[in-house]
Specification:
mainly alpha, 2 helices
């Protein structure tokens, strides 16, 4: 091979390598842009998830503090029923006491003078 042919082959391979490197450079740039955009989207999504988790925890706490449980309602109902029963027993006892009061009254005799 003559030096001119060697130069042409070397220039051909350098051209092919340059084109390949240029294509790779463009692809790599696009991939890096995509990674940056994805990182931004991921960060925004993570922030939304964190806010949603905090809101859910606050709602759970509010619900636990505000709303009654089934066991608590049963306990309160039982206490109210016992109190009503106690009032009923006192009323029944009052009737018996009033009956005894009227039964034991001394009769007044009317004396005419």
């Amino acid at each position: 091979m003559t030096p001119e042919e060697i130069m042409k082959v070397v220039l051909f391979f350098l051209t092919v390598a340059g084109v390949g490197w240029g294509i790779w450079w463009k692809i790599d740039g696009r991939v890096k842009e995509g990674e940056k955009a994805s990182e931004t989207r991921i960060k925004v999504a993570e922030d939304k998830v964190d806010r949603a988790a905090a809101d859910l925890a606050a709602h759970k706490l509010h619900a636990a503090e505000t709303f009654a449980t089934k066991a608590g309602m049963q306990e309160q109902t039982a206490q109210l029923l016992r109190a009503i029963e106690g009032v009923g027993n006192r009323i029944d006892g009052l009737n018996d006491r009033l009956d005894r009061l009227y039964e034991n009254q001394p009769r007044r005799s009317a004396t005419r003078g």
